[in-house]
């Protein structure tokens, strides 16, 4: 997919006269966030997107960040803006998200873009569920008429995921922490997407034979010798025996999320001055 985007950037650049630009705002010194930001910047470089990363001290205020976002909204070199989460507790991440111009909302999480998803209109899609959809298409997983179960109903993953599967004509059920008889529900799923944030929560008994299992979860657990390692929401070793397709953690949806961030940035770049997407 990165090669595809690189080719697209090379084709568009002579007409637009500049490369696409992505601004990632990071506040504080969370090492995991710093690693994610570096990863995004490297991925940008691979496809020819210019990074306009800005790093702020942990005590930076809401008003200063809001001003930065307003400046980037007006910057003609910047096509995508995102605020790396989590933010220090004194900052309101949602309020900052609302300040990003919808056409530069590289994460696809602004209410205008979520509204476009609900309405089935073209627009910037939330990166993680869009990455899941791209992976399912790449592996030629048929969704129409299939039973899809989404575990988790967050605005970041579960809800937009359910809408995207619905848009693809799957019959979708969304489960959450108050769902009863969860295993019975998941056993009916042809496509099971896990986004709960609980290590190895989905066991083989919960999965139908031949199901497609997508593991969105990223959980840091203590491994052998006390070393931290990342695991998903699915008990991979056992579910792998039953599933027809399964995504690994690490790998799988994490890299697809970054790929969709690049895709969104290039999409905004390609929309340029189109009036319909100028809000
Ligand atoms: N791969 C990626 O790039 C990527 C991107 C984003 C997130 N993630 C990972 O995906 C996971 C979910 O992220 P998130 O932001 O959606 O998390 P979140 O906001 O904490 O939401 C978790 C969801 O899971 C539900 N849940 C919790 N315990 C449950 C249980 N026992 N049974 C059924 N449902 C349960 C919650 O239900 P309630 O609504 O009832 O509380 C909630 O809807 C995390 O591990 C996160 O790190 C990965």
Structural write-up:
The protein contains ten helices and eleven strands. The radius of gyration is 19 Å and the shape is globular. The protein folds into two domains: 2-105 and 257-277, Leucine Dehydrogenase, chain A, domain 1 (Rossmann fold); 127-248, Rossmann fold. Helices cover 40% and strands 16% of the residues. β9 (219-222) and β10 (228-231) form a beta hairpin. The strands form three sheets. The chain has a five-stranded parallel beta sheet with strand order 6-5-7-8-11. Strands 1, 2, 3 and 4 form a four-stranded parallel beta sheet that branches. A two-stranded antiparallel sheet has the order 9-10. The protein is of the alpha/beta class. α6 (127-138) packs across α7 (158-167). NADP nicotinamide-adenine-dinucleotide phosphate is lined by residues 128, 151-154, 156-158, 175-179, 182, 195-198, 216-219, 253-254, 257. It catalyses: (6R)-5,10-methenyltetrahydrofolate + H2O = (6R)-10-formyltetrahydrofolate + H(+); (6R)-5,10-methylene-5,6,7,8-tetrahydrofolate + NADP(+) = (6R)-5,10-methenyltetrahydrofolate + NADPH. Pathway: One-carbon metabolism; tetrahydrofolate interconversion.
Concise synopsis of the structure shown:
Residues 2-107 form the Tetrahydrofolate dehydrogenase/cyclohydrolase catalytic domain. By secondary structure, this protein is an alpha/beta fold.
Secondary structure elements and pairings:
Layout: H1 2-16, E1 21-27, H2 31-47, E2 50-51, E3 54-56, H3 62-74, E4 80-83, H4 93-99, H5 111-119, H6 127-138, E5 147-151, H7 158-167, E6 171-175, H8 182-186, E7 191-194, E8 212-215, E9 219-222, E10 228-231, H9 236-239, E11 245-246, H10 253-271
Parallel strand pairs: 1-2, 1-3, 1-4, 5-6, 5-7, 7-8, 8-11
Antiparallel strand pairs: 9-10
């Amino acid at each position: 997919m990165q090669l595809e985007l690189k080719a697209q950037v090379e084709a568009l650049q002579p007409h637009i006269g500049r490369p696409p630009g992505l601004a990632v705002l990071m506040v504080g010194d969370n090492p995991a966030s710093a690693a994610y930001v570096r990863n995004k910047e490297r991925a940008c470089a691979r496809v020819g997107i210019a990074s306009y990363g800005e790093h702020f001290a942990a005590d930076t205020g809401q008003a200063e960040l809001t001003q930065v976002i307003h400046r980037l909204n007006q910057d003609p070199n910047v096509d995508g803006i995102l605020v790396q989460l989590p933010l220090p507790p004194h900052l309101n991440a949602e309020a900052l998200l609302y300040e990003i111009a919808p056409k530069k909302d590289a994460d696809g999480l602004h209410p205008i873009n979520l509204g476009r998803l609900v309405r089935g209109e073209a627009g910037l899609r939330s990166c993680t569920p869009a990455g899941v959809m791209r992976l399912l298409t790449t592996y030629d997983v048929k969704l129409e008429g299939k039973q899809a179960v989404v575990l988790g109903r967050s605005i970041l993953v579960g809800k937009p995921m359910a809408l995207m599967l619905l848009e693809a004509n799957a019959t979708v059920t969304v489960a959450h922490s108050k769902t009863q008889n969860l295993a019975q529900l998941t056993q009916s799923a042809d496509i099971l997407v896990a986004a709960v944030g609980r290590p190895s929560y989905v066991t083989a008994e919960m999965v139908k034979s031949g199901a497609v299992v997508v593991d969105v979860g990223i959980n840091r657990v203590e491994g052998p010798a006390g070393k931290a390692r990342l695991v998903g929401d699915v008990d991979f070793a056992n579910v792998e025996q039953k599933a027809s397709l399964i995504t690994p953690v690490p790998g799988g949806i994490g890299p697809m999320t970054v790929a969709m961030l690049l895709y969104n940035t290039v999409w905004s770049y390609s929309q340029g001055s189109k009036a319909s997407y100028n809000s």
